C-alpha cells in the first residue's frame, strides 16, 4: 500500500513539474507550484472518488440496465461478461489514489504559508 501511494504521488509530482517546466508559464515559482499542484491533486481526487463510487456498487443497477437495453436493441446473446457487475469489473484500488491526492493537496496548502 505504501509503495502504491508513493508511486501515485511521484506520478502526480512528475505531472506537476512537467506542467511547470513545459507549460505556458516559463518560470517556476512557489505560487505557480501551489496553483498547479492543487489542480492536479483535485483532478486526481475526483478520479479516486469516481473509482470509489464505481467500486462501491452504486452504479451497478444503472450499468446493468443500460447493458440490458443495449443487448435488447442489438439482439445480442449474453456473454460471459454480461452477468458481471460494474463493481466487479473495476479492479483499481481507490485508497492509494485518494491518499496520494490528499498528500499532494496538503503539500500545496502547506506551501501557501511559506
Helix and strand string, N-terminal first? HHHHH
Structural class: mainly alpha
Radius of gyration: 19 Å
Number of helices: 5
Question: What does it look like?
Answer:
By secondary structure, this protein is mainly α. It has one domain. It has helices at residues 2-22, 30-56, 60-74, 86-89, 95-112. Helix 1 packs across helix 2 and helix 2 runs antiparallel to helix 5 (95-112). The model has no long low-confidence stretch (mean pLDDT 86). Residues 35-83 form the DUF3899 domain.
In summary, what is this structure?
By secondary structure, the chain is an all-alpha fold.
Summarize the SSE layout with pairings.
Blueprint: H1 2-22, H2 30-56, H3 60-74, H4 86-89, H5 95-112
Helix pairs in contact: 1-2, 1-5, 2-5
Give the key terms:
single chain, 114 residues, mainly alpha, 5 helices, 75% helix, 0% strand, elongated, transmembrane helix, DUF3899, DUF3899 domain-containing protein, transmembrane, membrane
Amino acid at each position: 500500500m505504501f509503495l502504491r501511494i508513493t508511486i501515485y504521488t511521484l506520478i502526480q509530482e512528475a505531472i506537476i513539474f512537467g506542467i511547470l517546466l513545459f507549460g505556458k508559464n516559463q518560470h517556476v515559482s512557489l505560487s505557480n507550484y501551489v496553483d498547479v499542484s492543487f489542480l492536479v491533486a483535485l483532478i486526481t481526487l475526483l478520479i479516486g472518488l469516481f473509482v470509489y463510487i464505481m467500486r462501491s456498487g452504486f452504479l451497478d443497477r444503472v450499468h446493468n440496465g443500460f447493458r440490458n437495453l443495449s443487448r435488447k436493441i442489438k439482439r445480442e446473446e449474453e456473454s460471459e461478461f454480461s452477468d458481471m457487475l460494474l463493481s466487479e469489473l473495476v479492479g483499481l484500488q481507490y485508497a492509494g489514489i485518494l491518499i496520494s491526492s490528499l498528500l499532494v493537496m496538503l503539500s500545496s496548502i502547506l506551501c501557501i504559508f511559506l
